[in-house]
Amino acid sequence: MTVIKVCLGSSCYVRGNNKTLEFLQDYIAKSNKDLSVELVGCRCTNLCQDGPNVFINDKKYSNTTHEQLIKILEAL
Ligand code: FES
Q1: pTM score of the predicted model
Q2: Helix, strand, coil share of the chain (percent; to 5)
Q3: If you placed Cys at 53, which of 4, 7, 27, 29 could pair as Cys (CB 3.0 to 4.6 Å)?
Q4: Average pLDDT along the chain
Q5: Contact present, 50 and 63 (Cβ < 8 Å)
Q6: Nearest Cα to 20, choosing from 34, 36, 33, 5?
Q7: Which fold has domain 2-75?
Q8: At 36, is the pLDDT very low, low, confident or very high (cuts 50, 70, 90)?
Q9: Other CB atoms closer than 10 Å to residue 67's CB: what's the count?
Q10: Mean pLDDT across the stretch 43-64?
């Protein structure tokens, strides 16, 4: 099981995570892969300066873009 946490604190939210949660939901739903993913939002982790932040299996990814997230998920 892969756990993806998307920071939905105000800084990450306005830096792009407002669209990331929906983007990931669509990507997972349309993926032909048998992905076992738990996708959740999380509160600010006080790492705002690095945002938008996404945590995949508790590893932090900073300044994330949708393209970067696809690459990470495809490598799983
Ligand atoms: S808002 Fe995401 S780390 Fe603070």
Answers
A1: 0.92
A2: 45, 25, 30
A3: 7
A4: 93
A5: yes
A6: 5
A7: Glutaredoxin (3.40.30)
A8: confident
A9: 8
A10: 96
Q: How far apart are CA 6 and CA 54, in angstroms?
A: 5
Of 5, 46, 50, 61, the one to substitute when testing ligand 1's pocket (max ligand atoms within 8 A of C-beta) is 46
Contact criterion met (CB below 8 Å) for 28 and 72: no
Best mutation site among 7, 40, 61 for ligand 1 pocket (most ligand atoms within 8 Å of CB): 7
**According to the model, what pLDDT value does residue 76 have?**
80
Q: Contact 24/72 with Cβ under 8 angstroms?
A: no
Q: Count of residues for the chain?
A: 76
